[in-house]
Structures are given as structure tokens and as C-alpha cells.
């Protein structure tokens, strides 16, 4: 695999943290309740964030698409949470806050890229 030079900035660390928080919460809930949707959601965040930030040359042309997919994925997760559950509990508020932060950070990073 050929790598390319991509400027890794502090905003990317926060993107990783926000994605890890929401993925961790969904993983925990998926394992606790045996719900495949939570597990798939966690896997989606880990996979998309990895694809977005991993410095492999063959992914470079798709970087902007992956960014928009991750933004849409986060927004869809928030919308489906509101439709299916919408409970204002600690995991829900924490995950939705991390997802909103992730959307904002991806948008800000777009302007800097």
C-alpha cells in the first residue's frame, strides 16, 4: 500500500475522539441490549472515520466523498434517534453531542483542506 502525505492536524485528533465516543456508546448499547443496529452504527463510525483519515494513496481521490458520507451518516443517526427513541438520557445526549461536534468539525476541516 502506497502512502501519501496528508497534514494531520489537531482537528483530526478531535474528530477521532468524537467518532470514538459515539462509536463506543453505540457499541456498549449494542452489546448490552443485543441490538444489531447499535453494533452496525458503531462499526460505521469506526470504518468511515478510518477511511477518512488513513493516509493511503488510493483513498485520496475519495476523501471528500468520505467526508460528506460521514457528515450524512452522523445526521442520519441523529434523525433516526429522534424518530425511533429520542430519550434524553446520558448516553443519548452524549452520543448526539459527539455526533453534532463531528459534523461541525468535518465542516470546518473542509474549509481548511
Topology:
Elements: H1 10-33, H2 36-53, H3 63-84, H4 90-112
Note the overall shape.
Answer: globular
Q: Provide the succession of SSEs.
A: HHHH
Q: How much β-strand is present in the residues?
A: under 5%
What helical percentage do the residues reach?
over 70%
- The number of distinct β-strands equals 0
- Determine the oligomeric state from the structure: single chain
Termini separation: 23 Å
Domain module tally: 1
Largest sheet entry? none
**Regions with little confidence, pLDDT below 50 for 5+ residues:** none
Structural class: mainly alpha
Radius of gyration: 14 Å
Q: Which whole number gives the mean pLDDT? A: 93
Number of alpha- plus pi-helical segments: 4
Task: Give a brief rundown of this model.
The longest helix has 24 residues, at 10-33. The chain is built from four helices and no strands.
What does this structure look like?
The structure is a single chain. With 113 residues, the chain is an all-alpha fold. It has one domain. It is globular, with a radius of gyration of 14 Å. Keywords: Membrane, Transmembrane, Transmembrane helix. It holds the Pfam family DUF7475.
Jot down its keywords.
transmembrane helix; globular; transmembrane; mainly alpha; about 110 residues; single chain; membrane; 4 helices; DUF7475
Amino acid at each position: 500500500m502506497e502512502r501519501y502525505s496528508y497534514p494531520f492536524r489537531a482537528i483530526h485528533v478531535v474528530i477521532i475522539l468524537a467518532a470514538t465516543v459515539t462509536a463506543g456508546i453505540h457499541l456498549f448499547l449494542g452489546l448490552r441490549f443485543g441490538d444489531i443496529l447499535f453494533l452496525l452504527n458503531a462499526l460505521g463510525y469506526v470504518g468511515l472515520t478510518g477511511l477518512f483519515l488513513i493516509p493511503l494513496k488510493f483513498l485520496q481521490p475519495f476523501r471528500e466523498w468520505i467526508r460528506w458520507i460521514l457528515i450524512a451518516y452522523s445526521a442520519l443517526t441523529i434523525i433516526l434517534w429522534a424518530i425511533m427513541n429520542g430519550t434524553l438520557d446520558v448516553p443519548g445526549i452524549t452520543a448526539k453531542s459527539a455526533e453534532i461536534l463531528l459534523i461541525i468539525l468535518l465542516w470546518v476541516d473542509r474549509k481548511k483542506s
